[in-house]
Amino acid sequence: MTHDRQGRPLVAVTGMGVVTSLGRGQSENWAALTAGRSGIHAINRFPTEGLRTRIAGTVDFVAVEPFCAPMLSERLAILAAEEAVAEAGTGAKGDFPGPLFIAVPPVEMEWPQREALAAASGQTDAITYADLLKGAATGRFRAWHDLFLFGTVADRVAERFGTKGSPISLSTACSSGATAIQLGVEAIRRGETQAALCIGTDGSVNPESLIRFSLLSALSTQNDPPEGAAKPFSRNRDGFVMGEGAAALVLESAEAARARGARILGYVLGCGERGDGFHRTRSSPDGAPIIAAIREAIEDAGLTPDDIDYVNAHGTGTPENDKMESLGCMAVMGERMKRVPISSNKSMVGHTLTAAGAVEAVFSLLTIAKGRIPPTINHAVPDPAIPLDVVPNTARDAQVNVVLSNSFGFGGQNTCLVFGAEPR
Amino acid sequence: MREVVITGLGIVSSIGEGVEAHLQALREKAAPRLDAQTFAPYQVHPVVPLDYDKQIPKKADQRQMEPWQRLGCYAAGLALESAGAKDDAALKARMHLIVAAGGGERDYAVDGQILTGLRTAANPGVFLNERLMSDLRPTLFLAQLSNLLAGNISIVHGVTGASRTFMGEENAGVDAIRIAQARIAAGQTDIFLVGGAYNAERPDVLLVYEMGGFLWKGPFRSVWERPGRGGGFIPGSGAAFLVLEAREHAEARGAKPLATLTGVASDRTRRTPGAVAQSLARLWKEVGAGRSPHVISGATGVAGATEEERAAIKDLAPNASLHPSGDLIGHTVEAQAPAGVVLAAALLQEADEAVVTSVGHWRGEGLVRLVRPR
User: Fold this and answer.
1) Does residue A4 lie within any of the structural domains?
2) Which of A198, A271, A314, A379 is catalytic?
3) Which of A297, B58, B97, B361 could form a disulfide with B300 if both were Cys (CB 3.0 to 4.6 A apart)?
4) Do A55 and A138 fall into the same domain?
């Protein structure tokens, strides 16, 4: 089979790479995930005195200089893409035969750079932006112009892997990683390309980004023990925990992948997406956009809700998300949903934000490949309002052929993907 | 492949509001409006005062947005109105959205106070935490997130089919139009709202470009005259949105095509000498542009790329009528290509073919070709 029932090219996954606080690469991550081990720990990257939340799933084993979100995000993306491209074995080194779609965190200058500009201005009195501009005009900070452009991470990754055409940097907030995959699927289905490199990356745990989420009361404040803080679907859940990481997927038309004898790891069978105009940070109370996105993904895959074997949840652990996600899944799958396993990788890696959709895509495909479902850890107090099988605390062996992976974000972003072992 | 037409145009800039104001300014070769005081020695093209109530009826929504988001929401509303879609809730509910945007926005007073205090703080890290925790407005975050212009358009205008935000300066604008065009042509979607917004009146964005030495500081000169004097661009505030749809979809709902979008192409070169000219030649061929179109050039005035672009256009289209958008509205970064397409579509009232160039100040090359609809 090379085309789906709608006559579109089938989209195969032929390479995957992942980095999170659990480790580098598929095998380290998979071992930790299925052992129910958490990567969340006390933050030691910056002082946390005075903060309500002092924990995160930071990636501390990757060093970059100067240390800032775009540098770490770029490095994580490259590590993930190296693994994915090597596994796919497509193209020559530095000559990837298709476009790049990369979800990157919004870029901005950070406090160490502002401080350096202030110092360079020579101002000894109160600092204003006029002084920072004076510092900028010294010409001593030329390299930071490039570093703090929104398109630079994508440009550097494109240069390194030799992807084709103009690379696309995108953001759909916490569903960005899924959107990167969706853009790749669409390009292959249009016949524009036979391969695409799709990446989600996020290395943006710094004081200000943490404080922003904290001020919106989105983060768990149960700092002790850190590994117990992320409690998706539990009654005592109190917010998400920020995480860092990256994942990369090499997508190929199934026809091209087979023609070159590539090993196919799974298929992206369907994508569903729906905006929500209700509120900037909250879902429509009736869940209609979430429900529509899930339905659309399943329909796009040519399947029915009964075909879903497992749901890889968005499962952030915020009171709002988990309630609405449960409601959405129940509405689409009906009573059967109470028996469909659903688990949240975020209970272990935290919420990798821009990267999450891609990280969880890799974990969804590994779940299919290994026949084992990673658990939702820290599930001690079930929420009676969430009547789901959340695969509590311990991994479970199961034959999984079709996975629904959900991603939802601020700004009314709802993106759902369906992965399968085989085309239907 | 389906024919893709433009049925709605919306634009706001330093020149004014709406297509007619811009068309008139193009015809008259109007002088640009500049603010050389607020950020001296830097100048910007400030957006004209707008009555935001006209497109963002709820004050609460206006308060939740920073200027780049308000500009974008406003121009998006104009585009929807012009496409006859503003009051069609069902159509907007299935309309897809791609926004080209940066983001950011700072609380300048808070930043200044923190930087001043950091110099003498006994424990700078703890000082930073304490001040950010107490001084940051919680909702400022929602004005900083790149995808929250799209989010606000969904809330204010009810465009909720799907929404994506492309970042990456100038090419984000070209690629937003490119992906929308390709999806409609291939039958993946029927109708899109696509565009970008940029607020130049922000010291923090000036900062990034000044670090790289890209801002023009002398008296105003045409973008073509700047490279010989060191080069540089003058940022302009503005926003531009388009409604794109399949021709049959437009006809079925009785919408009038204003232009046919025949080609959108973008490129990534290493910007070695000659790379921009070579890229434009290749893209010119790819979009099938002729030798005598109207050309809305997004040339920034930055040395190197600007001269190469001008020479390339002269070579590719010796009879072209050349209109640099930077001389009229300044450089609108992510909104550069969408604004160029709005201007080009307006010119098709009196021409058969228009080409929009979008060569980034630092990277990214793009071309869009439009023809008068059948």
Assistant:
1) no
2) A314
3) B361
4) no
**DSSP calls for B4-64:** EEEEEEEEE-SS-BSHHHHHHHHHHTPPPP-B-STTTTS-BBPPPP--GGGT---HHHHHT
Set A68, A174, A329, A416: catalytic member: A174
* Cα–Cα dist B183/B188, whole Å: 5
Q: Is A279 assigned a catalytic role? A: no
Cα–chain center distance at B97: 15
- Mean per-residue pLDDT over chain A, rounded: 97
In the residue annotation, A198 being an active-site residue is answered as no
B-proximal residues of A, 198-257, CB under 8 Å:
207-208, 211-216
Tell whether A414 is covered by a domain: yes
Q: Is the pLDDT of residue B105 over 90?
A: no
Tokens of B27: 């015809």
CA separation, residue A236 to residues A345, A380, B235, B284 (Å): 18, 9, 50, 60
Q: Closest approach of chain B CAs to the CA of A364, in angstroms?
A: 23
Q: Could you identify the residue written with the tokens 């070159």?
A: A260
Q: Of all helices (H) and strands (E), which one includes residue A102?
A: strand A100-103
Average pLDDT over residues B70-75: 98
If phi over 0 gives left and psi between -120 and 50 gives alpha, with beta otherwise, what is residue A415? beta
- Cα Rg for chain A, rounded, in angstroms? 21
- Ranges of residues in chain A with a pLDDT under 50 are none
Residue A301: give the domain boundaries: 11-108+149-420
Domain boundary pick from A122, A147, A172? A147
pLDDT given at position B143: 87
> Mutual orientation of helices B108-118 and B124-135 as an angle, nearest 10°?
160
Q: 10 Å Cβ neighbour count for B52?
A: 17
Q: Are residues A59 and A121 in the same domain?
A: no
Tell me whether A37 touches chain B (CB under 8 Å): no
Residue B104 is predicted with a pLDDT of 81
**Neighbour count for residue A278 (Cβ, 10 Å):** 17
Is A110:A69 a contact under the CB 8 Å cutoff? yes
Percentage above 70 pLDDT, chain B: 100
ipTM of the complex: 0.98
pLDDT score for A390: 98
Please indicate whether, in this complex, the C-beta atoms of B103 and A172 are within 8 angstroms of each other: no
| Per-residue pLDDT at B118 exceeds 90 | yes
Point out the residue among B152, B174, B362 whose CB comes nearest to the CB of A149. B362
- DSSP H or E segment with residue B203: helix B203-211
At residue A55, what is the residue type?
A: I
* Contacts (Cβ under 8 Å, ≥6 apart) of B358: B170, B171, B173, B174, B266, B298, B336, B337, B340, B364, B365, B366, B367, B368
* A3 in active site: no
CATH number of residue A177's parent domain: 3.40.47.10
